[in-house]
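Morning run. Coffee first, then this:
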Amino acid sequence: MKKIISAAALLLPLTLLAQEVPFEIKGKVADPGYPARAYLYYKNGADNITDSADVEQGAFTFKGKVANPVRGTLQVRPRPEERRPIRLESLSFYIEKGTVKIASEKGIGEAVVSGGPLNVDFNRMGEATKPMKAKYAELSKEYGAADEATRKSEAFQKNYRDKYKAISEEEKTALLGYVKANPGTVIAVDALQSYAGSMPEDVKPIEDIFKTLAPRVQESTHGKAFAKVITGWKNTAIGAQAPEFTQNDTEGKPVKLADFRGKYTLIDFWASWCGPCRAENPHVVKAYEKYKSKNFEILGVSLDQPTGKAAWLKAIADDKLTWVQVSDLKFWENEVARLYGIRGIPQNFLLDPQGRIIAKNLRGDALEKKLAEVLVN
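And here it is:
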């Protein structure tokens, strides 16, 4: 196994390290038929950890220690030297004390997870939303099967958005039902977070539901983390001053949000792997071309992964995104995304020349309509 952790771990006191509990992950998927590696991403305390292990005839093993049970993301990909096309599938589960088993007769995206009480609860939540996940997959296939001209057509894009919204509403109903039926498990925090979506228009109802969870759930590491997300949502409400940040562009040069002061600016959160984001990009491009000469600018923030820089750059070129792009390539742990309470993409914020948030989550024609309104006035 090859593990990468931040240097901060070396500074932890021995008493804290001693509190960590061991875990083991045993995986078995269909033999890919070529040299492959499994990649495990998770957060342990303040450290973002990337671990990898060889896949031998479909089998792989991870061992380590965590201070608290944490969400992990697992992928199986060809080794870099193979230079094969990557079908990016991910599996989310909980890394907790003891042995977690991951099994699939196909790819990692269809694996079944067993082991540990949190994974039992997590699987129950998964079962509640399984029908909707299947519908999302079908919609993704529909998008992938369409040619570029079809994808750019207004009719196709509207149909895609309408179908996605319908599935999303169905999923939210299932998630809320899970939260209300299971207030004593920390997985209810996951369900509530998914229910809330990337950026709720009204944060108060979400906060009220959160307060109905068992006190031990609210005070758990997971609960406290979500409480910070709620704070981020409050700080990015309409009328609030957009939180300042600095992040590197595609060439590694730091870009400050403050550099855009004096213009109407759209902070656009997206990623190369995000189907809905890629479907939304033509609308953003259209709005940019129409208004870039009228005191309007865009700052793209990508949630691409540590190994995803090439995919990020390719998506920028393929989608013809000609505005400034930044990313720290930390996936969902992107520092700007965390600052803004981002838990789902695409998401955007429109700022006035003074840096105040005047609109958010502008999809489809809504972006052009809002720009026409503010730039004319």
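Residues 4-18 have pLDDT under 50 and may be disordered. Good start to the day.
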